[in-house]
Structure formats: C-alpha cells, structure tokens
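User: I'll paste a sequence; please echo it back and then give the predicted structure.

Assistant: Echoing your sequence first, then the prediction.
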Amino acid sequence: MIYIKRWIDYYEDLFQPEMNQKEFFESLLDTFEQPAKFLSVECGPANLSLELSKKYDVTVTDQYQEFVKVVNTKIVENGAHINVHNLNPIDISRFLPKKTFNIVTCLNYRLIFLKDRELAKKFMWDARILLAEGGYLVLDLINFAKYDFSDTKIELPVRKCDRATLYSSLIKNTEEASYHLFQHVVTTEGKMIDEVKDEPVTPISLETFKSAANTMGFSSIEFYSDYNKTPYSLDSEKIICVLKV
C-alpha cells in the first residue's frame, strides 16, 4: 500500500463509511456495558471511528504515519477523544491491552495486504486475544469466490467518488502461485495517479477463513453481503465477516 502518499487526499473520498455501517456497529456496541470499547485496525482516515467516538471508547491503529497524521488532525479539529497508535497490524497484541475490546475491526479489505495467509491468521488470533468475552471481530473482505482464479488477471470492483475513480486488478504469478495488486486513480480532470504496482496481496477464500476461525475457537461465525445484514451469496461483491468470541 505504497500509494497513500500520492493519493491520500482521494482515499478518504473513495472509502467513505458505507450505508448502514455506523448503525451496524452501534447495534453490536450497544449490547455491552457502556462505554463499549471499539478498536479499528488499519483505520485509514477513520471517518467511521470519528463518528463512533461520540458515544464509545474508540482506539485506532494504522501502520502508515500518513494516516495517523490525518486522524490526529481530525481529532483536534473535532475535539474528539480517540486513542491513536502507529502500529503494524501484526503487532497489535504486543502493544494493546488483552481481553479489553468489545469489537475489533479491519475494514476496506486491508487484511489482504498482510502478504500471506499465515500473517492473516496471526492477525485474527491476535484480535481474538484483544477481545473481551462475548466480543466481535468484524472483517470487511472482497468476495474472491466470484472470480475465476484460473485467469491470469482479475479485475476488482471499481470504486468511485465525486473527484476520482479507483481501478484495481490482481495479476497472478503462475510460477510462484502468488498474486499482486495493481491500482490507479483517475481524477475527474483526467489525471492518472498510477502508483500501486506489483504489490503482493493475499486473496483469502471463505473456506480458508471459516477453517481458521473454527480453529481459533470463535463461538459463532456469520457472513453478510453488506451492513444491512443481507445474507451472503456467491455473487456478493464483499463479505462482512462477524466472528464472536
């Protein structure tokens, strides 16, 4: 995810909170003793977290200093109370309190940037360690089941905002059986910002995810297509994964 330095201004518009997302998390957070504790890992510009911080105890982390700076600026501008940490997602259990959070999230498919499945599983396990009893791990993933991985190139869903459009594709390295992400932004003025090239990513299948979650002892596993809790289907563009301790 090297791109943020060049299109961080567009990232916030391209990855706005989704319809019913705030209400989805509030419905979970309100079931806990208040103020419930919410942790967003790889938070980006943290628009959702900023809204939730008006009512809940919010902590955010991101491995990129650029996003941490954006979040700290917003905290000052809005008078918000958010704990902010510049952390790699695989280090969260080293520096954050265990058995503390009611919800841990990693949204906007940032989980695939952990390079390989073992690191993704480590993150899931570390998140479970941080969750209090009855807490939830909520992950927002691309539904890779709808794509044909026999193809050498897979076009991912396009994201649009008023100022720009984000195009993404996965290229398969058949010799290494690995996948690499290519992304570019085209602004409404026609300027192309092409900075994500050959970035290793880890497409995670639903079967792999289920197996890992069961091994880690989550008490329930639910999958949705959106934050309105539409049941998951093979044609869904994304998967909202809700794992309960």
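Residues 1 and 38 are 24 Å apart (CA to CA). DSSP finds seven helices and twelve strands in the chain.
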